[in-house]
Design brief:
2 copies of one chain form a homodimer. The first copy, chain A, is of the alpha/beta class. Chain A contains 13 helices and 7 strands. Chain A has a 7-stranded parallel β-sheet with strand order 3-2-4-1-5-6-7, with helices on both faces. The two termini of chain A are about 30 Å apart. At the A-B interface, α3, α5, α6, α7 and α8 of A face α3, α5, α6, α7 and α8 of B.
Chain lengths: ~325, ~325
């Protein structure tokens, strides 16, 4: 893309143009250098959106929750961009995209922008592409940026780690996630939403969650509220949005928001630099026969992985 | 540690001495250079053990399953080493260690070695420390090395990715994990065990799993068997062990075992090299005021994360 066109795209994006935003995200997703150029240009316009991360096990009704949240935010005259990040393997891809279709009623509303990202990238770059896309949404002047992902493992949670407020969605009967929370596999989120709360086991689940929360200690004086919703019937959504807003007010007041963002951005820079270095290393395997030979020795159990890694780095430094 | 002592430790370890093995793993866990030296020395003795990875949501009865598997393996006159890797956050640590105590009946058997690792490491090094520890167990002449971890997220599964055979444990009512499997958040394992199979919902769960397996396609002609167990009553354990052995026979015959190990070892070398590079980068933040300044500019929204990362790498290369 010519620089003039890139600049034009940046201007349109900052002005809030949805098509420009869509195109910009595609550039980032495809790891196009023009995408990085764009983020660079619009970056000074970021930092204004309220970034919310939503995670939870599959089947909990996250898409329906998002649909209901969009409605509520629009009623409050706020704009929103949703980024659905799907780290799943390709073979079930169709089923998950099917969920997205339910959100299509908002496609014509200029205040609503919805985008899925599933490109895993070669070297775990999904989390990085996610942040870049979220920054673009932020620069486009969206009041709210909602990043959604599936699962409660660490890799999945990393994807939404860029958010200011992390929301975990559970439902009665989704026992593993409560166990994961209990076992500390997942960090304690800022807000917990129990969806499908008309289920008879709701009270049991809420009690279980309270039990888990009682084990931990609120680091900055925040006790995660548990909000019950029936997203399919728009029940509890106002309360959920209020809980998210309360958390935001809390971290702004405590100064934790600035801290959190600063820490996340620093980590992000380190992560991007590390990914770059790893790409170089991977490339060197193919280009450098001596690296290939080292790896063959490891496979033949002649040289241990640690020594091989050190030797590769030593040769790399010598070559520089 | 003096080199002579390290060599002595290596000799004892290769001879199968349990105390030497325990000490060696501590060195690796503490990232002691002597640990790396040891792995280097004993590495030619590795590659013989059958490596099995076991994962599943908390509460599924993994410890009980392991206890039953140990009994069965000992009945077959095979030795075993178990490595329990716990990626959970510190505050619930006690509860998980409590589970381990149930395994204590085997502590006096010289054919059984059990070890927990929970040290997360600063930079995601747990997966690396896990492989090093597993290599030490392998070098110590254990017929079987069983790596166990909690959870079904990608980061958790990475920990057991070094194994030849991956076993996923589920139980009736652990719905999220089946959903995670279905959504492709977790890769299809080689063997699925349904524990607590006296539960009335067992048939439903087995049907659900079959449904998920039917969606995928066996890459190398292997269809993951579903084994029903009641580990607490030693029911189904022989069948489980037979299923694991069958998978092994299959991948040996197809040549997939050699491929898998070769791929894993190559990835491991790259991962170790990357971690090293990242450590250097992190150190440079503290040492180099200009790096710190770049990060400050990112936080102030003057410089985007991608440009900052590139600039850090550029300065680093110049300095070399």
């Amino acid at each position: 893309m010519a620089r003039a066109t890139a600049h034009d795209l940046a201007e349109k994006l900052v002005a809030g143009d949805k098509r420009a935003l869509a195109r910009a995200i595609s550039l980032v997703e495809n790891n196009d250098p023009a995408g990085w150029e764009l983020v660079k240009e619009v970056y000074p316009h970021t930092g204004r959106a309220k970034m919310v991360g939503l995670t939870g096990p599959p089947g909990v009704g996250k898409s329906t929750l998002i649909g209901a949240l969009i409605k509520q935010l629009r009623a409050r005259e706020e704009t929103i961009a949703v980024l659905s990040v799907d780290p799943s393997s390709p073979f079930t891809h169709g089923a998950l995209l099917g969920d997205r279709i339910r959100l299509s009623e908002h496609f014509l509303d200029p205040g609503v922008f919805i985008r899925s990202m599933a490109n895993r990238g070669a070297l775990g770059g999904l989390s990085e592409a996610t942040l870049q896309a979220a920054l673009l949404m932020d620069a486009a002047g969206r009041d709210n940026v909602l990043i959604e992902t599936v699962g409660v493992g660490q890799a999945e949670v990393d994807v939404i780690d860029h958010a200011d407020t992390i929301v975990l969605a559970l439902m009665p009967g989704s026992g593993d996630s409560v166990q994961a929370l209990k076992a500390g596999v997942m960090e304690i989120p800022d807000v917990i939403v129990v969806n499908k709360a008309d289920h008879p086991m709701t009270d049991t689940l809420v009690r279980e969650i309270r039990g888990v929360l009682a084990l931990g200690h609120a680091e900055d004086g925040w006790v995660p509220p548990i909000v019950q919703t029936q997203a399919a019937h728009d029940i509890g959504i106002e309360e959920l949005l209020d809980a998210i807003e309360s958390h935001r007010a809390h971290i702004v007041e405590r100064g934790t928001l600035a801290e959190r963002r600063s820490r996340n951005l620093r980590n992000e820079v380190m992560e991007l630099a590390t990914i770059s270095l790893r790409r170089e290393l991977e490339a060197s395997i193919h280009e450098d026969a001596s690296v290939q030979q080292l790896l063959d020795e490891v496979v033949a159990r002649k040289l241990d992985p640690g020594s091989a890694a050190r030797e590769i780095l030593r040769r790399r430094e010598e070559a520089n």
